[in-house]
Amino acid sequence: MNFDEIIERRDTHSLKWDMMEPLFGVPKSSGISMWVADMDFRPPEAATDALEAMLRNGIFGYYGDERGYREAIVWWMANRHDWLIEPDWVFSTHGLVNGMALAVDTFTKPGDGIVLFTPVYHAFAKIIEAAHRRVIECPLSLKNGRYEFDFSVYGQWVQENAKMAILCSPHNPGGRVWTRDELRDVHNFCQRHDLILVSDEIHHDLVMPGHQHVVMPLAAPEAMDRLVMLTATTKTFNLAGAHIGNVIIADERLRSTFAQRMNALGISPNSFGMFLAESVYSLEGAEWVDALMQYLDHNRRLFDARMNQISGVHSMSLEATYLAWVGFHDMKLSDEEIRQKINGQAQVAVNYGSTFGMGGQGFHRFNIATPRSVLEDALGRLEQAFDVC
Ligand SMILES: Cc1ncc(COP(=O)(O)O)c(C=O)c1O
Fold it and tell me: Relative to the CA of 95, which ligand 1 atom is closest?
């Protein structure tokens, strides 16, 4: 594992690098891409070995016999997250946005309200609105530079037709690792309003040294009869193109309703994703993630130290994820003027905070999962754009 290696991603159909020009106007030839959440690192060798074995065999037929795959997930959740699950609690979907869309489709109907704690990963609102459900925005509050829930005010927005809440844990953007107490509060809120709780824990392995992610079922064991858990190998091991995710449902009633919907939509596994996922849920994969998080911890310290030197800029201290959430509010410039500096002058492509819902205005999200030399190049450009030398 060499996270310093520069791997050319332009002209490889990379969403991150090949779309930065059409989407953000940042030139592909000279720009640096720090938007969408995929990393510029190779996955563990186990993943490439698994693909090579498929290639040697040379036949790419339907995937069958999921026992090994399910056991690998059971092993990972037990060994890395202390959560004991049964193999038949797991559904594999075509990624987690797909898993979430299926949960929305299965457990709510058009017109129903779905609570989001904003700002939050923009795809949540996108699928909810596309499915003709209603987003109920419950804004997180900013206290001492970090996000917290404020359940004293959320109740007023939750009307009768609210049926679901979607939690992002750890939080994207903002990088919070929610505490047990906070997770219990989320569950109590869902219980009070009788909401299905979807806990998207795709970032569960990407936790900075010194922090500990707690899976929702451990924080609130009594949540099981309303809980839909979403996890994946793809964010952890940089396999997003494999489009595979786990929907884990312990409750038998919820599980059979979900299974019926999966059947009705004819969803069956993509063998490339299955082989890749099984290969990385291993001791080798665990060692790789530990090394990755050391590297990312160093990147985040470097990023924060230099960005926070720029007057009026506040980079939130990440407890998890590699997505730095940076506030430019104190600069007294409009979002448009900030974008001109970041995209236009520095030629760095980033996500715009306003796309993450209420509370996102004035922020920009920077993906720091890139070789250190690329990060340093980007920081130098940003410092120049904001006149710091
Ligand atoms: C919270 C969260 N959920 C889901 C996804 C995407 O999942 P997938 O690529 O499996 O659809 C992301 C990607 O950044 C994410 O941050």
Answer: 10
Q: Each residue of 61-80: pLDDT tens digit?
A: 999 999 999 999 999 999 99
Q: Within 6 Å (CB) of ligand 1, which residues are found? A: 37, 95-97, 121, 168, 172, 200, 202, 232, 234, 240, 245
pLDDT of the residue at 356: 97
Percent of the chain with pLDDT over 90: 97
- The CA 96 to ligand 1 mean position distance, Å, reads 6
> Which domains, from first to last, does the chain contain?
15-44+285-385 (3.90.1150.10), 49-281 (3.40.640.10)
Token look-up 């006149």 returns 387
The angle formed by the CA atoms of residues 384, 292 and 170, to the nearest 5 degrees, is 85
Q: Determine the atom of ligand 1 nearest the C-alpha atom of 240.
A: 9
Give the separation between CA 204 and CA 92, rounded to whole angstroms. 17
